């Protein structure tokens, strides 16, 4: 493997994330395990969005819908005394897959601002649905007293959850690398560049885009399962448009259409957020200004500006 700056950055980021639990144990700081566990979960969600936004050019402003559905799959089952992790996982995959298929079949027939607004509308519909679920906490959310239990692996244990998230992220990055380099990935990227040309070459873009949309929804649902176990809490805020906006910022900040961009963006965004919270109560204003400056100066993102490949 040729060691380009992008490859070196990828290795360093992954090594750093892999060593966090070791440092947290040595330093006696479990806070870092929780912080970077959150980074990993949002990195998984951002990688799933990157398939649509970075490679497909589809600006989804309602992607948090699937994060929330994954989280509620865990919370609702746990509320009824079901702590079987495989059932939690199955519920998240099925629910996100079905909702992704139905919503995708609608939104992918539109483009531009209409696509953005309809994805947002779907997310808001489910947001208000969760607000109305008084049995499951309504607007206040609900605590989870039983995490996902996979037998030898229990995700309510912080260390188990961290390494499960880390391994899932590695598998996802490898799968995304293979997917984008495949015929399927080439069609998705070609459709972003020139959809009319792809049609002239004999490809039907809609089935490819719908498949990418459903895959992205399911992977984001897996991130929802993890975030529910990380916080042991579910809330409609997981489905809010602000959460979708944060995922978009993470992808853009790290580098659109790059493999490690969403991971780098998640690390940078959440660390900046945590540092600024400790520094000022007006941290959201400062964070917004910093992001604007970074995007204006470095439009290709943190990873996108590093030489070493097209993805």
From TrEMBL:
Signal peptide: none annotated. The keyword Hydrolase does not apply. Keywords: Cell membrane, Membrane, Transmembrane, Transmembrane helix. One of its GO terms (cellular component) is plasma membrane. It holds the Pfam family BPD_transp_2. It comes from the Bacteria. It is a multi-pass membrane protein. It is found in: Cell membrane. One of its GO terms (molecular function) is branched-chain amino acid transmembrane transporter activity. This is Branched-chain amino acid transport system permease protein. It comes from Pigmentiphaga litoralis.
